[in-house]
Amino acid sequence: MLVESVTLETPDTKSVRLRWPQGYDVDFKTGQFITLHWPDAPTYRRAYSLSSCALDRGHYEVTVKREGKMGTRLVDWANVGNLLHVLPPTGTFLPVYEPGKHLVCVAGGSGVTPFRAFIREANLRKLTTKITVLYSVRQPEDIIFRRDFEALAAENPNVKFLVTCTRVADAHAWTGRRGRVTADWMAEQTTDLSNTVFYACGSNEMVEMIKGIVANDLKLPKDQMKTEKWG
Question: Is the overall model pTM greater than 0.90, yes or no?
Answer without folding.
Answer: yes
